[in-house]
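Bit of a strange request maybe. I'm writing a small parser for structure token strings and I need a real example to test against, not something I typed by hand. Could someone generate the tokens for this chain?
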Amino acid sequence: MENKIINIIFLIILTNLFALPSHATPIYDEGVSGDLPTIGSGIHLGTLTVGSSTVTGMMPGGNDKDEFTFDIGVGSVLSSIILVDWATIHTGLSFAMQLDGVEEQPGNPANIGTDILTAFWSSPVAPGTHTFALRTGSGNITNYQLDFVTTAVPEPASLTLMGLGLAGLGVTRRKRKQVI
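Reply from user aminoacidic:
Good idea to test on real output. This should exercise your parser:
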């Protein structure tokens, strides 16, 4: 009976520690909520929840710039930014992105579907308030979609509890072998 209880507790702990995020949550869509402000006057999108959060926008050119800030809560990290979609009416054009003031050029078709956070910046991004910005040169009409993936960092107490559960399972199995 004790073994069944220990096994159930262990499975509950593992399920909670390694639960996968469900569907992406749209946190901003320029088609619904209006144009994102230009750099220096960005809006705050709030705290990213664990899982996927999407930002969808359009930069009609003429040096358009989109900027927003977001928070990563204590106990979680930003583990990836996926460039889900990118389209322009001019072939070969790209746009630049900034994360906390560090600019890179991952806005091109070759990077669709890739994790641009680990490719261009350091990952994971720690809890706190962060700024993300995009800019395009004149003449571009660019649609984009970014997926910000936030993962939970297991608390030390959860890891300790899991360790105690594993130790208990080991002791129980060892005793069972000695009895036989």
